[in-house]
Design brief:
- With about 475 residues, the chain is of the alpha/beta class.
- It has a domain at about 90-110 and about 225-425: Rossmann fold (3-Layer(aba) Sandwich).
- About 45% of the residues lie in helices and about 15% in strands.
- It is built from 19 helices and 13 strands.
- It has helices spanning about 15-20, 40-45, 50-60, 70-80, 115-130, 145-155, 170-180, 195-205, 210-215, 225-240, 260-270, 285-295, 315-325, 330-340, 350-355, 365-380, 385-395, 415-425, 450-460, and strands at about 5, 30, 90-95, 100-105, 135-140, 160-165, 185-190, 215-220, 250-255, 275-280, 360-365, 405-410, 445-450.
- The protein has a six-stranded mixed β-sheet with strand order 3-4-12-9-10-11, with helices on both faces.
- Helix 7 (about 170-180) links the parallel strand 6 and strand 7.
- Helix 6 runs parallel beside helix 7.
- The protein binds pyridoxal-5'-phosphate (PLP).
- The site of pyridoxal-5'-phosphate has 16 residues, from helix 11.
Length: about 475
């Protein structure tokens, strides 16, 4: 498999380079040069396999066997999901006649990001071991990526990890899941700014070739292709369970950086019968405005009850744009430049119209989110987290289309206990492995939204790339 950059001026790369570098040097994101196909028989054969085996089948075409053999891949996927606390890994729960909830919160940090990141940690370890090198992971998080990445990288010999998060904009549970990890290779940086500021700081460090080369900077945000790839598997698993390839499916996905829903798009490009994808947004509704009416214009980020979706510039959207623009990297680079300068995506109406066969969007504000949590609790006796509630509400607002509909439950309710309690009066308890989280000591530094301050902190603590 060869990978190309969405901005068209980075040479093709094999999986190894894509995994280790994250972002392409031209500022673009890596995507496969062509989509591998899973034919109907291959899809049908997934039902009945254990979850790690499904992952191995789905990701196999994206990774060269010379780098990761079949045996290595079987071991890496097995280890990745061994720490999940539900025997089905990604269980489905029927919530009405044609709608299922896909529970993606049984991993170590209680959010769907564990699915890709646990595997990413294993892939990094394997590849760095082959090369005799180490890497410095630098990431920005609006909450859940941080803890999932830290859990995936902690105590691994070949990695240091620096995680930037916006001060006061992540929940206490989310923050503590990062800052209470007691591992010498984990560095938490609280930034006086927004998530987008954190993401910009990370991008600026990646653009610094000196820093990047000396410390082997690498990303685990959803800009890393391996994240997208790792998430694609649960779409196949859920659909196979519910009768694919013989049925059509729609998925409703609570969306921030557009990584999760883009993984659904990838599954469809590979042959999964997906007829409709609903992008569910909170009050930070740039994606909703784009899919609804072609308006992709930046406004400020407002804190909401679903903080992992408090994003205005959704990195992975560029990957979809690349396909919508017929894979013309120069055109994507120009459009992104204009978007950065003017705050408005040019030609948005045409791109939006072209995407509407497959995509639609819905938005829920905080009041609607709370009433959705309350309604689900009253009607089904089930507690759902605010991100999941946005998706369930979006499903209810969307017209039925005769498909089997799967709504993604992306976080455990105990990760966002304040919102759940506000809506229902019930404070969901943390599962046993995290029950003393609020008593553990925290480790983090707080820095200004200032590139040189953050860069110097990384320089002072990271380990150079080459091993002596
Ligand atoms: C990260 C996250 C999202 C948003 O996912 P994207 O891939 O960024 O679109 C939604 N819900 C939860 C709980 C998350 O952690």
């Amino acid at each position: 498999m060869k990978y190309v950059s969405t901005r068209g001026s980075t040479p093709e790369q094999a999986f190894e380079g894509v995994l280790l570098s994250g972002l392409a040097r031209d500022g673009g994101l890596f995507v496969p040069g062509a989509w591998p196909a899973m034919d109907p028989a291959a899809i049908a054969s997934l039902d009945g396999l254990a979850y790690p085996q499904i992952v191995a089948r789905v990701v196999r075409p994206f990774i060269e066997e010379t780098l990761v053999s079949d045996d290595d891949l079987a071991r890496i996927t097995e280890e990745a999901y061994a720490g999940f606390r539900h025997p089905a890994i990604a269980p489905l729960r029927q919530i009405d006649a044609d709608t299922w909830l896909l529970e993606l919160f049984h991993g170590p940090t209680l959010a769907f990001k564990d699915f890709a990141l646990q595997m990413l940690g294993g892939l990094f370890d394997h590849v760095l071991g082959l090369r005799g090198e180490r890497l410095t992971i630098v990431g920005a998080t609006s909450g859940d990526t941080g803890s999932a990445a830290i859990e995936a990288c902690r105590d691994r010999d070949n990695l240091d990890i620096f995680m930037l998060y916006p001060e006061g904009r992540v929940s206490e549970v989310q923050r503590r899941q990062m800052t209470t990890v007691d591992a010498a290779n984990v560095y938490n940086i609280e930034v006086r700014g927004t998530f987008d500021d954190c993401q910009d700081l990370v991008k600026a460090m990646f653009a610094d070739d000196g820093l990047r080369d000396e410390f082997g900077l690498s990303a685990v945000n959803s800009i890393n292709w391996a994240r997208v790839m790792g998430q694609t598997a649960y779409y196949f698993a859920a659909a196979a369970r519910l009768g694919a390839p013989g049925r059509e499916f729609s998925f409703v996905v609570p969306t921030g950086n557009f990584g999760n829903v883009y993984s659904a798009y990838v599954a469809r490009e590979m042959g999964l019968p997906v007829s409709h994808l609903v992008v569910a947004a909170n009050r930070n509704d740039i994606l909703y405005r784009f899919f609804d009416r072609g308006d992709m214009s930046i406004s400020g980020v407002e804190p909401s009850l679903s903080p992992s979706m408090d994003i205005q510039v959704s990195s992975n959207f560029e990957r979809l744009m690349f396909d919508l623009m017929d894979r013309d990297g120069t055109a994507v680079a120009d459009a992104m430049q204009a978007f950065r300068t003017d705050g408005v995506l040019p030609d948005g109406e045409r791109l939006s119209t072209d995407s509407r066969d497959l995509f639609s969007a819905q938005r829920l504000d905080d009041d609607e989110t709370l009433s959705e949590i309350r309604r689900v609790h009253e009607e089904a006796g089930m507690l759902v987290d605010p991100h999941t509630a946005v998706a369930i509400g979006a499903a209810r607002k969307s017209p039925r289309d005769g498909t089997k509909r799967v709504v993604l439950a992306t976080a455990h309710p105990a990760k966002f206990p304040d919102a759940v309690e506000q809506a229902t009066g019930i404070r969901p308890g943390l599962p046993p492995h995290l029950s003393d989280l609020l008593d553990r000591p925290e480790r983090a530094v707080t820095l200004d939204n200032d590139l040189s301050a953050v860069r110097e902190h990384v320089r002072a603590h990271a380990t150079p790339r080459r091993k002596d």
